[in-house]
TrEMBL record, chains A, B, C, D, E:
<dbReference type="Pfam" id="PF01544">
    <property type="entry name" value="CorA"/>
</dbReference>
<keyword id="KW-1003">Cell membrane</keyword>
<keyword id="KW-0472">Membrane</keyword>
<keyword id="KW-1133">Transmembrane helix</keyword>
<keyword id="KW-0813">Transport</keyword>
<dbReference type="GO" id="GO:0005886">
    <property type="term" value="C:plasma membrane"/>
</dbReference>
<dbReference type="GO" id="GO:0015095">
    <property type="term" value="F:magnesium ion transmembrane transporter activity"/>
</dbReference>
<keyword id="KW-0812">Transmembrane</keyword>
<dbReference type="GO" id="GO:0015087">
    <property type="term" value="F:cobalt ion transmembrane transporter activity"/>
</dbReference>
<dbReference type="InterPro" id="IPR002523">
    <property type="entry name" value="MgTranspt_CorA/ZnTranspt_ZntB"/>
</dbReference>
<keyword id="KW-0406">Ion transport</keyword>
<feature type="transmembrane region" description="Helical">
    <location>
        <begin position="298"/>
        <end position="318"/>
    </location>
</feature>
<dbReference type="GO" id="GO:0000287">
    <property type="term" value="F:magnesium ion binding"/>
</dbReference>
<feature type="transmembrane region" description="Helical">
    <location>
        <begin position="267"/>
        <end position="286"/>
    </location>
</feature>
<keyword id="KW-0460">Magnesium</keyword>
<dbReference type="GO" id="GO:0050897">
    <property type="term" value="F:cobalt ion binding"/>
</dbReference>
<dbReference type="InterPro" id="IPR004488">
    <property type="entry name" value="Mg/Co-transport_prot_CorA"/>
</dbReference>
Length: 324, 324, 324, 324, 324
């Protein structure tokens, strides 16, 4: 995948021209245009060229190169630097995280994508298909990509909710097992990571709505409120799932104990049932000279039948009291 | 059920006329009137017509169509968009959630109902029966429906409190069982969902009381404070029930352990009682040439009576110490 | 008990006259006087008469009639509506809750008492005995009754602290039992209810101290701060007791497990001691043709003494290692 | 111990004269002097005389007499009333609490000590030895005593940290026991009480630093920040110890369970080892007419040696798998 | 290691001269220069000389001498006093803490290092290699050292994350053991200490960014925001690890119980298998005169084979149901 995914100038909602990185400063002279650049894991050299064209701050560029940042929004002079974590569900419910960095200035937006994530080509196509919205400038582009990123979280949190349901089934229907306990732990870990990735969105959108920056027009504010709302919802689902998971862990634990109790009772009941014939057999194994029963012709079958009866009664009693 | 449940104009507290959706703009010219529309799961086409009549914001209309929103209040220009979750208890304590969306503007209120919920026809009838209050305009209509929605929560939280009481009875009076644990989990789940639905009311009412909008007159503020108060109370009951439920889970767990201990003790006691005759029988089963007792005429009955006595004493001792 | 407990006019700290409910408006004309009415679970009709005399708000009067409100303070125009929960300990540590509602206006205070609670006749007598304080007006009356209500909480929280101590004794000195667990749960429930009743006092006093209302003079502010302080203290004791109770629940649980372990060990030790003679007896019960010991004259007593010795040694060893 | 510990006037950092309680008003006329009174559990009569001399507020004096107040700071007019809890470790780690109340006004400071605590004579001596600091007035005296009180907390929290370490040792090195569980509970109780006593310091110092009172000069502010800092540190240690204690309780619980498992396994292993000879003995105790082994001359020793071998192998296997 | 590690004057980003402690006041006259002093556990005497040269506050100097302070930032007049905790991982994952104190004034920065930590010589060299940044004055020096200190935390928290992973492996793959429980406790302790050391950074950076001090230029603010960001990230990792650790403790506990249950079941199953031949042997050990089977020639082998078959079937059944 090439580093410079895209680099074009837009005017009144339409793409005017695909441009070369080094020609940007010529475009920037025209205030009615803005430049939208998409990069993918750019080399230090490319980033330096971009930095020079737009006059970006050293610290922001360093962050954009190193990746592994916290999601955040920062204002350097009058240009914005935003870091967001993207999320991506690959087969068998494995979650992969990526990062996207934005530099937004008076007439440009630079989008730097890191790690595993879906490309933003679709977003670009969709934006170009809505010139009346795209004409609102780079603020709208920022919204469009952020919205796309947030929407990627929904299948992920739904996957986590499904995982919780699967665990519930195992806990309440199956037997307590090491696997369930490990799955609970794993789900907790995933939830914590998703939470850490999504919760900063709330603060970021909040600040985007309050910032008084000319290239984010007041009429795009409801759009950021929309993202804010989605982030809140994802956050809420994650918190909810986490709380339920904790309860599931506790319930799992109670059920393990109940199961232990069942084992003890079953064992005790069978031990009692077995104890009777063993004891009886021991009795008639005694070597007393005078033990009249031993001389009876039907002594042996009577004893066998007698103990079987006692065992039967015990079995019935344990069954009734729920020990068996 | 038809999509347009009702559509009428009101003036000075009285219904003036039932109108057609496409005639609304004619009514809107008269500032002394306001239009109250009730929709039920409207199609995209109907919503678009409503949007055109009142000039609603795209994002709000999109939300109103898709449903499954978080409860929220949003101001687009000078028209309000409110989303509330309704609740509804169907037979055997099953809780069903619905959604109601409100668009409130200078002289209209549009109420969009989604999912399972009771219709607002009763509210309309009651409002029409109180012209002096209805003459306060669409702000009062908003209050009347919100109050109705909040009042629907009371039977639900009472149902949840009853469920907790049933669980308490099972935990403290019955035996620890898998069913009780599962019911605790289920109740926790319901509480979380009700909490998520009702807690945004607090913030929404708070903001309605602070908003400075001409069509919500200062004299309707105490009414919204009343809803705020009800929401607080429901919220408090839910929190309380949740905290008690957590303690019940812990108590349940302690009782499982105590019950396990009881089983162990009972088993140990009976094992001890059985061990005596078994051991004695084994003893007199030994084949030593010289064992004087075996030759005694009353050896056998003496041994039987002796072991029975020991067993009796053991039984008494275990009984006294609470192991049996 | 009659509904209108008391209805009198006060001037410069002294009661001037007992008046009839319908004569109140005549008294109200004189700004130097204020009216103090005490009601007990008034009928709708009485409340309506009071409402008409003082011009109270519909919503407040409705609340005062229905009772079962959250403790709260509300300002309707320039008249205050306050709801407080009263508490009352009846024999054997059972806590009963009641409600008291206050309407305070320019020259009146109406006190409506609901449910189980002690009458405020003593407060009235005490106020009348301190004319210099009573001359501060209805603000002081409000303080006097609120102080009385808060003071009723102290014996209750002390009772709860005693209950915790009783539980501690049972947990650490007695055996783990179902009763203790149920008492812990019950105490938690009581604590939650008291907490819910007392914690709103903090906010209510806070707002009374900040309100700028002419009939609550700045010099009565330290008095409300005093109540605020008491409420904080009760709140703190409740929180403390709750936290300790949670630890007691955990400790109780640990002790149940230790007790279980003790049972297992004791059982294991006795089983081992019993296993020896049983095994020996089995051995000498074998029917081998050649078993020299069986022919010895002192074989039997030697075996008996031998096994007794082994059992003695085992007993001593288990004793030493703490299993017995 | 006498009630009036000390009563002297100070001017420009030096004690001018020891005075009688009733002569104070004469001293107060001279604005360059301030009076420092130290009382120990004063009678109502003494407090009344002090109140009259300085014009203290009724509510504050009542608090100072009754003691058992929450730590707090209150402003009555322009005189401060401060309540602090003192702490004191007596032998064998028992913590005793006391109370100290301060009345600070334009040219006086009254220090009222209650319950078990160290006298402030040392503080007075130290202050008198630093006239340049003492000349900053009663604000500095307040600081000096508060600093002394906070410093008394350090040995106490260190004692609590030592107690935690002792518990850790018992939990991880010794056997789980009832005593450890009770000690954990006791330590938790102590921590809660110390926390309750020390945490209000933070707020009190904060407010002292913000108060704009002429007799607390801006240059004494860093001194109160110093106390604030110490209080924060003590608070932090207490919170830390508490959190670790909770984990220790959980760890203790895990270890009890592991120990229980060990008991079960040891018992199971020995039971298995004993079961073999018992079963074999039973076998050769059967009375079948035809059992060739019984007739062998070496049958008996062979069986004995055979079972011993099997037991040996079992012992070795259980040992290897960690059950023994 | 000598106490005065370094003492030099800087001007326009370059070191001008190494100076003696007593000559500092001569340098300070020139406002275009600033002095950077590095001390290591200085004696009281050295600190006093530094204090005199720069006019530092008594309380700050006392703190700097005693060490063992909470991380904090304080403003004395217009000079800053900052305390930070440094961290340092020595071999086998043992964490050592140190302290660094900063005095920053109009044209000086004094860095006092305490306890185990890496020297700041590298930082000095790096700063001197970037004259354009160093020319921003002592604010930049403060940033450079703080950045260095925060960066030392990353290997430590990574070490803690590795420790958690090792514990996870032991919990989910190995057997529950006392060692794992103790390691969990130890890790929790380390996490608490790191958290306590790093979390104040957030507040300190926040205040540095807001302080309006001339020697911390607005253009160094983004640098402090960078440290703030790192501190937030470390904090987040610590919180995350802590939360996972708690879940691991719970999971560990569940697994101990499951393992206990496995032991009980295995024991019960083997006891049942052994009970059969024991009982059978007892039966044919009875001494009834008439027991036909005993007379059969193949009675003995039939019984042996029969019991072996039953045992085999039992073994198969227990195996299938997972008890063995």
């Amino acid at each position: 995948m090439k580093e410079i995914v895209n680099c074009a100038a837009y005017s009144i909602g339409h793409k005017t021209v695909d441009i070369d990185l080094d020609k940007i400063h010529e475009i920037l002279k025209d205030p009615s245009q803005f430049v939208w650049i998409g990069l993918y894991e750019p080399s230090e050299e490319i980033l330096e060229r971009v930095q020079n064209e737009f006059g970006l701050h050293d610290l922001a560029v360093e962050d954009a190169h190193r990746a592994h940042q916290r999601p955040k929004i920062e204002l350097y002079g009058d240009s914005l630097f935003i870091v967001l974590r993207t999320v991506h569900m690959v087969r068998d419910c494995h979650i992969q995280f990526g990062e996207t960095h934005f530099f937004v200035g008076t007439n440009f937006i630079v989008v730097v994508r890191h790690g595993s994530s879906v490309a933003y080509t679709d977003v670009r196509t969709r934006c170009e298909a809505m010139p009346e919205l795209l004409s609102k400038g780079q603020g709208f582009v920022l919204y469009a990509i952020m919205d796309f990123i947030v929407d990627m979280y929904f299948p992920v949190v739904e996957g986590l909710e499904d995982a919780l349901e699967a665990i519930e089934d195992k806990v309440f229907k199956g037997n307590p097992s090491r696997e369930t306990t490990e799955q609970i732990y794993q789900l907790k870990k995933d939830l914590l990571e998703v939470k850490r990735a999504v919760s900063p969105f709330i603060d970021i959108c909040n600040r985007l709505m309050r910032f008084d920056i000319k290239y984010i027009s007041p009429e795009t504010q409801p759009y950021f409120r929309d993202i804010y709302d989605h982030a809140l919802r994802i956050n809420e689902i994650v918190d909810n799932t986490r709380e339920l998971l904790n309860t599931a862990l506790d319930a799992n634990f109670s059920l393990i104990s109940i199961s232990q109790n069942d084992t003890s009772r079953k064992f005790a009941a069978w031990a009692a049932i077995f104890a009777v014939p063993t004891m009886v057999a021991g009795y008639y194994g005694m070597n007393f000279r005078v033990m009249p029963e031993l001389q009876w012709t039907y002594g042996y079958p009577m004893v066998v039948i007698g103990t079987l009866c006692i065992c039967g009664v015990l079995y019935y009693l344990f069954r009734r009291s729920g020990w068996l």
